[in-house]
């Protein structure tokens, strides 16, 4: 879609921005962390619903939960259903030639939680060069927005930003009658001292 939006297939063996824990053990640790985080988010979401919290907060946490589960499903099953994928060769993740094809469930290139998350959305909104006089990056190319991401990542990001932008209304604490009385007494004594 023009020069600002591309579908760009990338297999991400790690987490956000390509950060990764090397090897099968690192991948398993990352996957177990994702599952634990999803259970924690699900517990918190249930608590918000039962406590009848602000609908906007419930919506935002639901987006975060859906994105987390989406990435878990991708990493858990992608390696089981495709015949090719980037695999750990002992030092780094090695890519493959050709197109990956669907295969019988369980006959894929990797085991459970060893698959990659597929990222495909790329928005290079601004491309250019840093000025030569700039320290560290002078003369180098830059692209904003460089990360390639997927819909699950977008849901997580949107949920987090929605919470940040609406935190005052989501986390507004209502004072108990005793606290309200103490506030009023404090205001009255302050006004009396000023007079």
Structure, described:
This protein has five helices and seven strands. The chain is an alpha+beta fold. The chain has one domain. The chain has a three-stranded antiparallel beta sheet. Strands 2-3 form a two-stranded antiparallel sheet. Helix 1 packs antiparallel against helix 2 (55-81) and helix 2 runs antiparallel to helix 3 (151-165). It is extended, with a radius of gyration of 24 Å. The termini are far apart.
| H/E topology pattern | EHHEEEEEEHHH
**Strand percentage:** 5-15%
The stretches of 5 or more residues where confidence is low (pLDDT under 50) are: none
Briefly note the structural class of the backbone: alpha+beta
Give the oligomeric state.
single chain
Number of helices: 5
Question: What number of domains?
Answer: 1
Question: How would you sum up the global shape?
Answer: extended
Helical fraction: 40-55%
User: How many strand units?
Assistant: 7
The spatial strand order of the largest sheet comes to 1-4-7
Distance between the termini: 68 Å
Radius of gyration: 24 Å
The major sheet is characterized as: 3 strands, antiparallel
Task: Look at the structure and give the mean pLDDT.
Answer: 84
């Amino acid at each position: 879609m023009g020069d600002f939006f591309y579908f760009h297939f990338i297999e991400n063996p790690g987490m956000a921005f390509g950060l990764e824990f090397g090897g099968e053990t690192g991948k398993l640790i990352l996957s177990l962390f994702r599952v634990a985080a999803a259970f924690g988010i699900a517990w918190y979401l249930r608590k918000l619903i039962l406590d009848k919290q602000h609908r906007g907060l419930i919506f935002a946490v639901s987006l975060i939960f859906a994105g987390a589960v989406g990435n878990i499903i991708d990493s858990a099953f992608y390696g089981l259903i495709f015949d090719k994928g980037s695999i750990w060769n002992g030092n780094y993740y090695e890519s493959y030639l050709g197109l990956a094809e669907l295969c019988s469930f369980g006959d894929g290139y990797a085991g459970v939680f060893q698959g990659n998350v597929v990222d495909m959305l790329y928005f290079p909104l601004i491309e250019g060069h840093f000025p030569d006089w700039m320290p560290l990056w002078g003369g180098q190319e830059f692209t904003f927005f460089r990360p390639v991401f997927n819909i699950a990542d977008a849901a997580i990001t949107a949920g987090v930003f929605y919470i940040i932008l609406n935190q005052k209304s989501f986390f507004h604490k209502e004072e108990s009658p005793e606290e309200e009385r103490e506030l009023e007494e404090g205001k009255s004594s302050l006004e009396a001292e000023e007079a």
